[in-house]
Specification:
39 strands; nine-stranded mixed sheet; 718 residues; mainly beta; 3% helix; 24-stranded antiparallel beta barrel; Immunoglobulin-like; 2 helices
């Protein structure tokens, strides 16, 4: 029945006339130069002998009106790189905002420029670069109009900025080796966005302002003649030394630490947009320098961005919008792996195979394979299929155990329809047998599917979605909560911003969300939840708004927990677009999972120096009423405090240090870490990190665990 529903929806939508999203009429020409610009944040007219891209228009506050603060972009190139010289005119440079100093941080609340490059000029995917006024950078890659991709991709490029009396300036050197492109073409797709804080203005160069990252509506970069193919091969060897206190040590025993050296290598071959190959042998995936530190106070798992080189290169080819049957962060101890990605006409393809180490904790010695094919119907729309398989390993006989496996297949479709409406649908089916002696899982409920209809335009977004997951659906290399099995849910939200600009009030934002779950084999509702808030945005950067959520939840019945009421009322106060940093406080009172709380969350970020960022995230939980703890027989009613202090300092270009202290007085657990990172040449880096855990004991804190880590890598390109 489920398959029929998806097929009927697909046939109906195929019959609809496709709306073709044409390129914007905006065009800018690049000029080849013999002597490349010096990337120092100062634009010399002799370095950029070309007419700029200009005439930016507003997305906010007045759609399609001329920009309040003009922007000019000059573009030149040579055999090595593409160069951008960007002038952001600004009447109030003293009020520029640059609160983000960590690489790959989202910077829409800073004064920043955003450059998006459709290197293949096919209206499908783009490289995404962002630079704030003090030179901090973000990079990523996305396709299908931002439906897939994100900041996981990391490139090798340079940006410098400077601030003058009536402008700030940015220069970018983006090497051709970063890009997959057609060397025989003279054109690329291009889009520029600028976020300007003193006037709370967002401006763009191309498109119609309605959907700024719709690649098919980018403007055009012309004048690219005689481009050389990028370097074909990259080799990235690495070495590490890891010191770990053995886990059987008693707390306070700091005498022993085992040091383990290791090494591995990554290979890459760039055959252009039609073919790319990546391989890895014994890779190190500690990558402690890449992950954000997150305190998890929920019973669910945390999604972490993929930052490991083998996976991030061209990894958007494997993405789909909802059912994540390939969550690569679940793949850990790898012996070797290979990946082929590319494009043939309108078809994108990707194939990957990974052999795990025999000491892998979850799947020792197993093999993981994945394949993905997407066919573009027209710009921003596609149909695709995806397969992920895990094969078991018989450690006793040393042979492949074919009776221990998990295979998941998925079919998905995305249609971009008129009036900025998107339709998305996915259907997945699994086949699993975990143990040689076990029978295969029952058929009929080993499926999952999702259907979503959404509409998005400046200042407004709404969507309705239906999801269902059978009780026998199993996807071993995936990201989903176990309690979603045997579950149906429908959800909807609306997000609307009203631009007021009267007196001290700038904007008024209203958000509403509703979610309803019920069991497939039972009509009784198991989860019913609604939340809403309304925020006032003031011209001085202050945000104030009430919050309410109501419902009940018994999704965690599989953990032996009963139905819990949800009832929360609160208020949110925050700052936005201020130069000294940011602050927010969220207070709510109500009942959540059978406990009545006063809860206060406070987040502070400030910059005593432009290169030094201090962040403090705290939560104070005061139980008004809490049922007796089954283990101790009495209620645990003390004030619970969770805190996370993080300091990041950019010493100079490509060299930084970071210190983090975390504490939780309920578990009496305290964590501390210190990291020094240095990118000593493009694509090559070194990291030194130290981390320890301490447990409260009496009046002191005894050492429970400690780790030290040293890593170095060097990239060769030819």
């Amino acid at each position: 029945m489920e398959t029929k529903r998806i097929l009927i929806c697909t046939v109906i939508l195929f019959a609809l006339p496709g709306l073709i999203f044409a390129r914007s009429e905006e065009t800018v020409s690049a000029v080849r130069v013999e002597t490349p610009p010096v990337i120092d944040g100062v634009i010399n007219p002799d370095e950029y002998p070309v007419e700029p891209a200009s005439g930016f228009r507003q997305e906010h506050p007045n759609l399609n009106s001329p920009a309040i603060n003009e922007t000019e972009v000059y573009i030149v190139y040579d055999d090595e790189a593409l160069y951008f010289g960007i002038i952001c005119f600004e009447k109030n440079t003293a009020g520029l905002v640059a609160n983000e100093v960590a690489r790959d941080a989202f910077m829409q609340e800073d004064d920043c420029i955003n450059v998006m490059i459709d290197a293949n000029n096919d209206g499908d995917s783009a490289y995404d670069l962002m630079i704030n006024c003090t030179g901090n950078t973000y990079d990523g890659h996305f396709s299908q109009d931002g439906n897939v991709g994100g900041r996981e991709w990391d490139g090798v490029w340079t940006a410098k900025t400077s601030i003058g009396d009536d402008r700030w300036v940015c220069e970018i050197r983006f090497p051709w080796d970063n890009m997959v492109y057609d060397a025989g073409s003279s054109k690329m797709g291009l889009q520029f966005l600028r976020f300007q804080q003193s006037d709370y203005e967002i401006t763009y160069w191309a498109s119609d302002g309605a959907y700024l990252n719709r690649v098919a509506t980018f403007g055009t970069l012309t004048g690219l003649e005689g481009l050389k193919p990028p370097k074909r091969f990259t080799v990235l060897p690495y070495g590490t030394v890891r010191g770990v206190q053995p886990p059987d040590d008693e707390p306070g025993d700091i005498d022993r630490m085992a040091f383990e050296p290791d090494g591995g290598i990554d290979f890459g071959f760039n055959g252009g947009k039609s073919f790319q190959l990546n391989a890895t042998f014994n890779p190190d995936y500690a990558q402690i320098e890449a992950d954000p530190e997150v305190i998890n106070l929920t019973p669910g798992i945390i999604y972490l961005d993929e930052k490991r080189p083998f996976f991030t290169e061209a990894n958007t080819a494997f993405d789909n919008f909802s059912c994540d049957i390939l969550y690569t962060r679940a793949i850990t101890e790898i012996l070797a792996g290979g990946k082929v990605t590319g494009k043939a006409g309108p078809v994108n393809y990707a194939v990957m195979d990974i052999q795990l180490e025999k000491d892998d904790i979850q799947f020792p010695g197993d093999n993981v394979a994945a394949a993905r094919v997407k066919a573009n119907i027209y710009e921003a729309s596609y149909v695709g299929t995806k397969f992920v398989a895990r094969k078991g390993y018989d450690g006793v006989a040393g042979d492949r155990d074919l009776s221990n496996y998990n295979v998941v297949g998925l079919v998905d479709v995305i249609f971009a329809l008129p009036y900025e409406i998107d339709f998305k649908a996915e259907f997945a089916k699994s086949r699993t047998d975990w143990f040689p002696a076990a029978e295969p899982a029952e058929s009929g409920r080993d499926y999952a599917y999702s259907v979503r209809l959404s509409r998005r335009e400046p200042g407004f977004e709404t969507a309705v979605r239906y999801d269902e997951m059978g009780e026998n659906f199993q996807s071993d290399i995936s990201y989903y909560e176990p309690y979603h099995k045997n579950d149906r849910q429908v959800s909807a939200f609306v997000d609307k911003v009203f631009h007021i600009y009267k007196g001290p009030i700038r904007d008024f934002k209203v958000f509403g969300y509703y979610n309803h779950h019920w069991r497939i084999d039972n009509v009784d509702s198991i989860y019913n939840y609604a939340e809403s808030y309304a925020d006032l945005y003031f011209t001085n950067g202050l945000i104030v708004g009430p919050y309410v959520s109501l419902g009940y939840d018994d999704r965690f019945y599989s953990y032996g927990l009963p139905r819990y009421p949800i009832e929360r009322y609160g208020i949110y106060v925050a700052t936005e677009g201020v130069s000294w940093g940011s602050a927010s406080a969220f207070f709510w009172r109500g009942e959540y999972y059978e406990t009545k709380y006063n809860d206060l969350e406070v987040d502070l970020t400030f910059l005593p120096l432009t290169s030094l960022q201090i962040e403090l995230d705290t939560e104070f939980i005061d139980p008004i009423y809490q049922p007796a703890d089954p283990e101790y027989g009495t209620a645990q009613d003390r004030l619970s405090v969770v805190a996370n202090l993080k300091v990041t300092h950019n010493v100079w270009d490509k060299l930084y240090w970071r210190a983090i202290i975390q504490g939780d007085n309920e578990d009496d657990l305290y964590l501390g870490s210190f990291l020094v990172g240095w990118e000593y040449q493009p694509g090559s880096n070194a990291y030194l990190a130290y981390e320890e855990e301490r447990l409260k004991s009496g009046r002191g804190f005894e050492l429970a665990d400690r780790r030290v880590f040293l890593k170095g890598s060097y990239m060769f390109s030819f």
